[in-house]
Design brief:
This protein is α/β, with parallel strands linked by helices. It is 42% helix and 23% strand.
Length: 218
């Protein structure tokens, strides 16, 4: 496939492997009002959280809209916001990267990922998404971040998560979506709780019904 893996595809894959596949092959569904509300809320969180962070670090020690490279990170700016990493296979957006003390390929410091999300309550998938960003970042800076930050909900609550070195579930998910990208082989369709708000709900339900899939029992 020539489609690059984006943050949206990664998040879709964590909610439903088949949805991640459909996004990867550029399928489009019927976006529900709930999903539109989610996007609207996330944009609100992104604007408010970015302002909050830049105010905290002061604009003189921040950079906005940068490309994630080793050279960029070596500049040692305290806060990088709206950061994009792109290569032949992925095009992942980081809401922010925060400088921390601790040796890495960059010097006596490294960065940790900061993601913005509309969810008021967080779950394991949110942590895994944060950990995937941490894995990608760690491979560049030569140090896997031990923590990551999620700023979430309309109130911009801040939650810090410990990220295990080389987080296995995050690494596995990233490797799985890369294999789908390479082979084009679809994962098994499995209906789940996410279906009720998913743009592909009707399509997948029709496919599952045609196969009399056991996941219909849920």
């Amino acid at each position: 496939m020539d489609t690059k893996i984006t943050g949206e595809i990664l998040e879709s894959y964590l909610n439903c492997k088949y949805k991640g596949y459909l996004k990867l092959i550029r399928e489009q569904g019927n976006v529900s009002p709930y999903e539109l509300l989610q996007k609207e809320t996330r944009n609100h969180v992104r604007q408010a959280a970015t302002h909050k962070l830049i105010t905290r670090y002061q604009e003189v020690d921040t950079a906005h809209g940068v490309t994630l490279t080793l050279a960029t990170l070596k500049r040692g700016i305290s806060l990088l916001s709206d950061v994009i990493l792109e290569d032949q296979r992925i095009a992942v957006h980081f809401d922010s990267l925060q400088k921390e003390v601790g040796p890495s390929r960059l010097g006596e410091f490294h960065y940790i990922p900061v993601l913005f999300h509309e969810a008021k309550k967080l779950n394991r998938q949110h942590k895994t998404l944060l950990a995937i960003h941490g894995c990608i970042l760690g491979d560049i800076q030569g140090k896997q971040p031990q923590v990551g930050i999620l700023i979430h909900g309309r109130e911009c609550n801040t939650t810090k998560f410990k990220l295990d070195s080389g987080d296995k579930s995050a690494r596995r998910a990233l490797q799985e979506i890369k294999e789908i990208q390479e082979t084009g082989v679809a994962p098994v369709l499995m209906l789940n709780r996410h279906c009720q708000i998913c743009e592909f709900c009707q399509r997948c339900h029709v496919d599952a019904t045609a196969k009399d899939d056991l996941s219909l029992l849920q």
